[in-house]
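Second attempt. The first submission of Gamma-tubulin complex component 3-like had a stray character pasted in from the spreadsheet, which I only caught after the job came back as garbage. Lesson logged: always re-copy from the clean sequence file. Corrected sequence (835 aa) follows.
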Amino acid sequence: MEDDDQQKIADLVQELVHRLITQNPQTPNLDPNSPAFHEPLHYASRILTSRLKPSVFPDATAIAESLKRRLATQGKSSDALAFADLYTKFASKTGPGSVNNKWALVYLLKIVSDDRKSAINGLDSSVFLPNLGLGDGFFRGGEAKKKDLNNGVLLVSQDPENLHDEAFRMYAVLVKKENEVNEEVLVKDVLYACQGIDGKYVKFNSAIDGYAVQDSVKVPRATRVMVRMLSELGWLFRKVKTFITESMDRFPAEEVGTVGQAFCAALQDELSDYYKLLAVLDAQAMNPIPLVSESASSNNYLTLRRLSVWFAEPMVKMRLMAILVDNCKVLRGGAMAGAIHLHAQHGDSLVHDFMMNLLRCVCSPLFEMVRSWVLEGELEDTFGEFFVVGQPVKVDLLWREGYKLHPAMLPSFISPSLAQRILRTGKSINFLRVCCDDHGWADAASEAAAASGTTTRRGGLGYGETDALEHLVTEAAKRIDKHLLDVLYKRYKFKEHCLAIKRYLLLGQGDFVQYLMDIVGPKLSEPANNISSFELAGFLEAAIRASNAQYDDRDMLDRLRVKMMPHGSGDRGWDVFSLEYEARVPLDTVFTESVLSKYLRVFNFLWKLKRVEHALIGIWKTMKPNCITSNSFVKLQTSVKLQLLSALRRCQVLWNEMNHFVTNFQYYIMFEVLEVSWSNFSKEMEAAKDLDDLLAAHEKYLNAIVGKSLLGEQSQTIRESLFVLFELILRFRSHADRLYEGIYELQIRSKESGREKNKSEEPGSWISEGRKGLTQRAGEFLQSMSKDMDSIAKEYTSSLDGFLSLLPLQQSVDLKFLFFRLDFTEFYSRLHSKG
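This time the job returned cleanly.
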């Protein structure tokens, strides 16, 4: 600045000080040249030239608004308007002669006004310069020392040596009187508490379950609260440390496991960083805390407030670790990883980064188990922590029951669908290795790892790489499942075995079934106890050699065997005879005992149907020549001849009805059920992507056959009605045989009726009584047979009507079409309406 400006400022300050002092009633006429005037002037100049700044934002407009608002609230509206007008002019003036630091001048005027108001309110000191503390002592000399301390606050009076140092010393004396323990000691005790160690004054209080200053120690309440807040970190540390110690003492117990051990290791790593921080803070705590009046030789000292700033971040982490410890006490494995993962969904970047680092360590054993299972088929789960559980089973049950998902151990960051694919991929490897004795899966696993961009070595996957994990599982599942199906189709000829079962157990090989029925039929009519399974096996081999079945694969034919079901004393061979197909590893995974039992049920049903068809064919073979030769009975009476013709006609009509039913029902079974189901199964077999799809397709195929063949539980009523019809047809076969045997005997005896005597005749025979006796016996026989036929016809009509009435009630659409086929002329419907 220019010299003139400097002089102008000095003059203005001198005038301002002079006016303020002369307003004091005790010094109305103070000489400006006297030493009593120069001392306050010199002190005011020191304050104005110092670098001290007020703790307010330098905003002149805000200060002016505050002053104007104060005047208005005091009822001085005119003064407020005048001040606003003056400030507007003052603020608008710029250029030479104007004030640059306008806000400082306005703030000075505000402080002066506040000091003047304080003096009016009766303060002990008459202070007219802000922060000068010019009171009565300046004018009364020695009395100032007596009034320096007022209510614990030292008023800084005019003193050549600047008494503010003495004020700070007095403040230190007051602090010592209120505090029995200085802050340095409390800081060190807090650092001890944060390590779980009792200090000299800060100890663990079991009553409040935390660290606190002892009640006998005299400290201000604010200090006590501050220590309690800071010592919370020690309480949290103690909980975490206790959990780690207890868990590691129990390891390798199953309750801890590898995931629990990794969790403890991650917590220990965080505590190591925590120890480093405490070491740094302990070094800073060795430096003394400077007084307010002293300039600290170093900023590396600790107070309780500084400690609260240092503890902000560790407190967040330690609280989070304590919460995790509480939540994971009773958890292990995947359940523990899932519980920790839930806390990672946080908006705070500090918490999120901390949880990500923690989870990478915690989940590393779990991801290693997934990698080993998906790429090697090895279940490295000593402590039962993995969400895939294995159990010892037979080889044929390895796929279905050998491995299961454990939902309680499935972490929340792995979806159920992904878990199912992980389970199936490992199962496929074990199935190939154990059941198929195949090792081609290793190449497929290596290709999958290369395609997904991961490595087959340990540590290739970790938390946060869920997309990479899903990609790896997808690639591995696609290649390994394809290899598994190729092994089943090509090496073990799964399709050919299914076709063989269809031909022989589902009676699809017509010439074989017909020949077997012809040669084994007479033997099966005998009591079951008299039939040898070895003899039936010979019949089976004969049927194979006599039909086109002889050209099938010999391995498949060797699996076809005769099975005699459990039977009682009254059972016939027809009731116990069945065929079975031997399923060997690995095909027994598909053709399990329950599946083969279903095939056995279907075979027994189809065998009954074939037996009924065979019986009707036998009736036709017996009926046709007898119908032709029946016209030769010319010597019989007309009434007997009419009875004979009526019986033959009744038999023919009933046979036609039964044949119509059996033919259409057999067509329905063989074509609309078996062939359609096989066609659908073949398509689904080609579209199958894994063994589960293949099993589902085969189960669907078999269930469709069982359901549509009236063998399901819901079809029990209609099935019983169908079996009644079968029994009636077999009874009809028996009666028809008796009828035609009688007719045949009558034909023979009628030729000999003209002879007077026949020595070979036995007593009681028809011919022995002559022509009259022959006619009488023939009439009685035909009448009896007619009654039996009428009875069978009546029962058959009633049973058939009941069967047809149940068909529309079935769920399968095909069964409803069966009703249309059986009653396409609506004959039975009209008959039912008339009845």
